[in-house]
């Protein structure tokens, strides 16, 4: 029985490229460095922190601090770069950053009578900025919001998914997680005992639903309601 669904945020509900470009522009203006220099520094910081997270198991809060610190050091900036980035992300134009199919998908899942939550990792900006943006885009649609810098665990750690299940008041076996990363979202959810939906935007052309294995791969969030119903037959 499925009683709840959690969504990853970036590149599942919201467009990460739009947010990154807004961040790069804001950092460029704050530091006085060319946009191309900032974009290169962001890419290097991203790789650096993801590597550290794999090797050392950085918490969500540590990932945010490490990514911003690396970026500030690379650009020779001594100001409050985290605040600059948080403000840029929180003030994004909702119509530009929210995938249109995400608004419908969240509404459809709630229409099934299921509890709905968000479970996201953090890098470069705090969850407070993402929370503000999600509230502007989706209103009070979520019964739970859990982010790595708050719960102390990043996906694909089983503890992250256990925290989401607890926050939604369900068992992990009653929870479906929807996200775009094969390792963090699909693999992490299945390893923790959830069912999962991998959103492979631009990577597949039609949905593949495997109820007996507890997961599905979809090209976007359109038709998610039917996918959830099919997964519930397991």
Automatic annotation (TrEMBL):
Domain of life: Archaea
One Pfam family per UniProt: Hydrolase
Record keywords: Hydrolase
Any one Gene Ontology molecular-function term assigned to this protein's record: hydrolase activity
Keyword Hydrolase: yes
Gene3D superfamilies: 1.10.150.400, HAD superfamily/HAD-like
Family listed: Belongs to the HAD-like hydrolase superfamily.
Protein name per UniProt: HAD family hydrolase
Source organism (scientific name): Acidilobus saccharovorans (strain DSM 16705 / JCM 18335 / VKM B-2471 / 345-15)
Lineage start: Archaea, Thermoproteota, Thermoprotei, Acidilobales, Acidilobaceae
